[in-house]
Amino acid sequence: MNRIMQALIFCSFAAAAGASDIDLAAVTSLRVDLEQVVELGTVSAVDGVTSAGQPSEAALEVFADAGYVAVIDLRGAQEDRGLDEARVVDELGMHYVALPIAGRDAVNFDNAKKLDELLMKFDGPVLVHCAAGNRVGALLALRAYLHGASEEGALEHGKEGGLTKLEDTVRERLAEGAQ
Q: Is 1 a member of any domain?
């Protein structure tokens, strides 16, 4: 069903743009390109989740218009967002949840479980973001492992969600195993 919707969205954009340089994957993959989200005015979740870096107000508006019900912010309180994100999210009718992941030590199975519990709480698509998507991808990898993925499968899922510089940390956590 999800692939059918993606195909329909793609066809409508291709027809409207004369099949020009549309990168639908940039707005329908697990980790999205926020500039493309704003430019195309659409976004689709993968299994109810979308990963991204820091969204702008314009990007948050697209998420709200696309039916997203919540935004989970993994950035710490001291990190500059460039906007009052909690207020904007609330005004757009979505739930704002802060789950600060500060540093490598916070990339752990306990926080992956917290993220999982938050994601399960919402009936609708959820945007999970940090500054660039790396922390999101790290927790998504650990979450996938908790749900039965192999270590390599979990890492691949994490990379699809934005995992980059924290890959070594995730590998260490996976080697330690879930407690």
A: no
- Supply the CATH number for residue 112's domain: 3.90.190.10
**Maximum CA extent, the chain:** 53
Cα(50)–Cα(104) distance, rounded to whole angstroms? 22
Residue-wise pLDDT tens digits, 8-47: 344 444 444 443 455 666 677 899 999 999 999 999 998 9
pLDDT digits (tens, 9 = 90+) for 140-149: 999 999 999 9
Considering the domain boundaries, does residue 17 fall inside one? Answer: no
- The one-letter amino acid code at 37 reads V
**Domain total in the chain:** 1
How far apart CA 47 and CA 74 sit, in angstroms, is: 19
Distances (CA, A) of 49 to 30, 83, 172: 7, 23, 25
Range of the domain at 170: 47-176
Q: What is the pTM of this model?
A: 0.86
**pLDDT for 148-167, tens place per residue?**
999 999 999 999 999 999 99
Rounded Cα gap, residues 114 and 131, in angstroms: 19
CA distances to 10, 37, 45 from 33, in Å: 16, 6, 13
* Residue 9 φ/ψ, nearest 5 degrees: -60, -45
